[in-house]
Amino acid sequence: MTLLEVNDLHVTYAGDPAVEAVRGVSFTLEEGETLGIVGESGCGKTTLAQAVMGALPDNGEITGGEIIFDGQDITHLSNRQRREIRWERMSMISQSAMNSLDPVYRVKDQIREAIQEHRDVSDAEAYERSRELMELVGLDPDRVEDYPHQLSGGMRQRVIIAMSLALDPDLIIADEPTTALDVIIQEQILYRIKELQRELGNSMVMVTHDISVVAETCDSMVVMYGGELMEAGNVDEIFNNAHHPYTLGLQNAFPSVEGEKRDLTSIPGSPPDLSEPLEGCPFASRCPFAAPECEEKVPVREPVDGHRVRCHEPVPFEQIRDRSGEDETWLSQNKV
Amino acid sequence: MAITEQSLNWDYDGPIMEVAGLEKHFPQSTGIVHQLIGGDTKHVKAVDGVDMAIESGETMGLVGESGCGKSTLGEVLIGLQEPTGGSIKFLGTELSSMSDAQHKEFRRNVQMIFQDPYESLNPRFSVEQWIREPLEVHDIDNQDERIYEALERAELTPPENYIGEHPHELSGGERQRVSIARALVLEPKFIVADEPVSMLDVSVRASILNLLRKLVDELDMGALYISHDLSLIRQMCDRTSVMYLGKVVERGPTERLIKGPKHPYARALLDAVPVPNPEHNISEPQLEGEPPDPVDLPEGCNFRPRCPFAAEECFEEPGLDAYETADGEHAAACWRVETVDEM
User: Fold this and answer.
1) 3-class DSSP assignment, residue A237
2) B258 to chain A: which residues are within 8 Å by CB?
3) Does this model's pTM top 0.80?
């Protein structure tokens, strides 16, 4: 059953100039599934996550499209209605969350407050629940007595995960949950998140710049660039059969400890200015395969069922795939 | 004044940087009562007996978790922090016994490239001012020429397009290139790069790594590349040292270490790196918890309390010679390498 459906979503930040950070993105998330949203800084992935969560900054506004959660259109709910869904039915683990714990309150009080805001439970019950949650995320329950500064970065991030689970939500949105942590702690936390998901059966959206994290933890994925969806589908399909030059560029730029060592490619240039309207493909100015048609509206094609690609495919994709592994291809761009 | 006495020995053909038994212990801050009653001061052993030699033209990788002492080691090597014990030799000359002139020469020849190009650049400085500053500090002539050359080396071409820019006008990759140009403008012989690409977008990381590699090669510098991520180390480094709680616990040629790590800690570090291959699902971590504070270190092997393979013999401290391949290139401070290999 579909839990979350995002249709042609647009998000704009007011200002001078206004910035349209998300430009018509669509995806669905099935119950119990994990969807990865991957892209580089400024691609709109965090904005997209915040829009779904109803946690956009004050100057951000949904300017088109719709968000359907569990059959209900939540695109334009009032703040109060949103608050009822937030944390109860969906919760968020954000990038900087581990620094967002209040330094003057003990962990147990912060978890209790999160619970009591939504549920009518006694202090004693909330305390018991906070100890349970600590154990769930692999922390010693006695550490609920600690203040945040007594915990390491990895432990604080676990507390945030505990809080996001406090009300047993159907959907957890994790925005770069392990970016500031080293690989050992990252592995521990991602493993724990996946274990909990297996136990509790919740769905998840994982926002990250790291395609290896998507490969290891997600079922399906959306690749974003310049506020738009470039490619989307099942993770196995996208890793083994990527069509889009940007997806292939990212894959070839990514180092691995597996297999034989290979030279990495890079993608020269920088992302588009999102304060400008753009008719064609946002990646065209960096794409070595771009042709004049890429300045026109790009249709979404579906080469395989469920695999969506937004690309004119100016040269056959087999050629794109072969040539995108070579650094020269990217360095000698025939820009539009 | 005899130049030979003043100047460092540039004909020295040993390792450009060589340390032995290097220590950096910080006194741990304790309460005032503790100090008044004359309690023992405890020490955080950030670097605790490191031996390492880096040749010109070679990049040594240094990998470990946060808090393992790798950044402190980097800072001690280039003189940003003073060691509390052991020896540092640059071009064969002991750092602590250098004359003032030699020490000045040392400072000019060792440079650091930092993690965060956003924070390391003064927002009010233009690129030109930023790169000129070290030249002023060391009172070096032909400044304009050197600035242009440094920008070209960092592939910020043509230099005219960049020289008047300010940090906010540059992309992340360009900013890191400016930091590299600044580090290289003094034509150093040894650089430390501490997580230089971790803040950069994936699509520009490779170009910065490739640039660093090329420069180390062309300028025949020695380099120490610090990271927690073996997949980045693999792209950059000829040899790699694995550090845990202030000590090097494994060292070897990078490819050999990645294909066959020997120390249980190195095995865990490698296992923890996510792989861009969907056949891999995240597996149960080999290590629980985090490294303890390097204050009250356990008896014997430091890693023993976290080690899934610890045994009786591990109560005796292993040196890096506890396991060594026949060619002497690959070594690990672990008594149980063969046993674990068989498991």
Assistant:
1) helix
2) 257
3) yes
